[in-house]
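Continued from yesterday's entry.
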Amino acid sequence: MKPETLSFYHQAVRRTVERIIDGLDDALDLELLARAAALSPFHFHRVFRGMVGETPLELHRRLRLERAAWRLLNVSTSVTSIAFDAGYDTHEAFTRAFRDRYGCSPSEFRRSERQGGMECVRPRQIELAARSAIHYRANGRAPVTDYVIEGEQTMHVDITDMQELRIATLRHIGPYNRIGEAFGRLGEIVGAAGLIGPDTMMLAIYHDDPETTAQQDLRSDAAITISPEATLPEGLVEQRIPAGRYACTTHLGPYEQLADTWERFMGEWLPRSGQRFGQGVSFEVYRNTPGQVPKNELRTDIYIPLAQ
């Protein structure tokens, strides 16, 4: 592992954490945070979540809520004012969020200080559960040091030189977990055109960061690999996945748990690997389907491009 590579990711994430802590009253510019880390928003947030245990937006929201809890116990500001400072448009929205995390309403939490905690599940405790050691501090920012999540298991990753892939794609707009609808349409089209052969690979490319893009606007592509001489049927778009160095790991199990593997891949393995993220797209290759094997036997290969 190259120390300078590990340091690059640590420093990028640390700078982001410090910006969030020092700017709790500011709206998060997630695009700007990612550019400062020299990564796309999609990839940066995967690295950040893997190293810290939360996305930047989740960290920002939690620290605002912890600050609100501290203010409820230590200052006489109205609950409504505290709610606005925490980023909530209404008293009701703040109360729902606060009750969900602290087990009681803001008013009950405030009264618990005076009544010995009889009404509240978590009296006088402002820190919310977090995998990192990052919490709100009223007397200034504590040093951002030992917050990185240490992986508990070794992840097997292969680094390979991959040839260019020619793919036929069908665009899906909407939540990523509904890309199966696009695969259904894609299967009908390529099946009728006779494009499915023994070496055909089925894959997906995800283009947008769910942290910065509304669910209904997320763009992804359902795709299959095709031969250089194949003619694309109407309705499909040709793309090329460039040749180059790629890191690949395998996810075994339900698609619903793919996000966990992505998090470990980007947030644990990559910063410790001595590798840097390269130009190009990340993608998933589905080696079997739910129609062929039980969910716990599904195999998905995950690829990320590496710098040369």
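--- second protein ---
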Amino acid sequence: MDLHKKYNFLSYLIREIEITSGGNDFDIDVATKAALQVKDILLKDEKLKASAKTNALNDFRFSYDDSVDDALLNGYEQSDDLYALLLNNDELKKKVMHAFIEDVYKKLST
């Protein structure tokens, strides 16, 4: 499945979660990107990599499921730490966030 199809599938899943969880109102783009971040964390997991190299997909699922919680916590902690740092340091916040200013301006001004 290519990235565009995965993104659309994740967006669909997040909409389903909103409906079934009592009306949580997630920003679909933000939630989808967060899910993709967790995937990236899983791809860097050395134990999971070793499991993929030595097991068939059906056996790999056990290692994968065990690693997902760690990846979710890792992603949450990384985002939480970064958000806290940026919220508490105006100079750093401007340096980091101004990396996007032209892109945001162009997308919003057209």
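Residues 18 and 24 are 5 Å apart (CA to CA). The chain is about 85% helix and 0% strand. Will compare against the first tomorrow.
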